[in-house]
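Example 3.2
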Amino acid sequence: MTSSHVRTIVIAGGGTAGWMTAAALSKVLGAGYTIRLVESEQIGTIGVGEATIPHIREFNSALGIDEDEFVRATQGTFKLGVEFRNWGALGDRYIHGFGAIGQQLDAVPFHHYWLRMAAEGKAADLQAYSINTAAPLRQKFMRARPDMQASPLGQIAHAFHFDAGLYANFLRRYAEQRGVLRTEGKVVQVRQRAHDGFIEGLQMESGALVEGDLFIDCSGMRAMLIGQAMGVPFEDYSHWLPNDRALAVPCEAAPGDLVPVTRATAHTAGWQWRIPLQSRIGNGHVYSSRFMGDDEAASILMSNLEGKPLGEPRPISFKPGRRIRGWDRNCVAVGLAAGFFEPIESTTIHMIQTSIARLISMFPRAGFEQADIDEYNAQSAAEYAAIRDFIILHFKATRRNDSPFWNYCREMPVPDSLQHKLDLYRSNGRIFRKNDELFAEVSWLQVMHGQHVKAGGYHPLADRHPAEQVRAYLDDIQRVVGKCVDAMPTHAEFIAANCAALDQ
């Protein structure tokens, strides 16, 4: 016998998480379900970053959103990767680009041939072999050409920079057009059943009670439902990820500098983001309060802006970590309520997206079977662990010894799973992707290489071909990538021709 259906879904909190959830559920569930989002205009939302990774294109596509319309509506620009400055050592610069690097030869991944030639001083830098890293150096951008799959022009992988508030508004219009109901007001109490703690409803400041079957916590770091009401413990990552503060401020856009990458510049106790939008540049300084005071952090941020500031720095406090259960009884946490690493590599919106997809794949009946809940939480835990390790890598892999912060990061013990990846690469350049984890082999390669993790060797099968043949193979890839970049428009030209915002 099957239990009755969940029919009423209540989303606590708006912002990016709330409205992404509302939009997706309104698209998938259709008629027969009531979706209500509760939010207060008096409670601000946290937009720690305005950058994304390519997976958001799948989300927008699933909703049937036109990409050019979305970019125009959000003052958006395009992103081919992340440019890192001063991370491995002062003066360093490398790009972690999306998409492929080189081309596989026989059964051996490209980077093993590159390692072989690099050891002999016969290879260019790694970023010369990928269009996603070569194009930003010349401020070039275009979308991939589906009709040119054999060419680097068919392999371009892109994401976006955008105004997160405008994106939330965009999705709100989408969701409300599809029947999502919005309730304005503050929640003053989470009403729970006495015998099992299931949520019955949200008591509003107005006196109204918003009842439902399934409750989704999008209340941000307050975790009003999953943490405060349900009491789900928090797993703290601070010993691996010491940053716990951020200051955010926009500034005027620098003319002619519309680079299609997020820039992350390391400072003495953290790092600074630069996110180019059509109307402005988003900036923020992420730092550790253990190693730097707020006034010094603000001074560093304001002295490293490229244009006139458009306001005062906005402080944000956070704790890196996750709720040990993202789903508890009839409550599912999405977004910052479920957990947060820190802004590097722009994983926040992706985690919202995967939580929504996971919930849809295991959408419950009213009985809320524990097996479904356990599977959701197991998948979520594995995802957090894999992404956590990749984020930690950025801080662990450094030669910097110019400040207590970087000394701490360089010397800190790391999870065994990350140490194993480092050991594998340091031995013979081996990188393995497990369980379809978010960051693929090429991502790990770029960060490890860019931050001076040295491979002691390479795959022995990379010696099957004569050195002259391998060098010619690398040279040909570099030449083709360069010719493709030559043919691309600039980032600014592409936006002007396709998706320029109307109110810049």
